[in-house]
Amino acid sequence: MKLNNIHEVHKFLEAVNRAKRVVWLESTEGDKLNLKSQLSQYVAIGALLSSHGVDYELFCASKDDEPLFLEFFQENPDTL
Hints:
Low-confidence stretches: none
Order of helices and strands: EHEEHEH
Largest sheet: 4 strands, antiparallel
Shape: globular
Oligomer: single chain
Strand order of the largest sheet: 1-4-2-3
Number of domains: 1
Mean pLDDT: 91
Number of helices: 3
Strand content: 15-25%
Number of strands: 4
């Protein structure tokens, strides 16, 4: 799922923290940010909140974690 902007940072990070396995963002340039790392979370959220025009795609290592983000995206459709 491609992300453009996140307005509900707290709710997004709650979904990340509830995920059982690794969740990461990958930029169109190939940069990967592991969202289970707090340092990477700060970098990722900063990038998503900025207007640099870089899109990020969200990946989950486990299919079991995907419903957490599907629920988030249903509640926050402007994120996609």
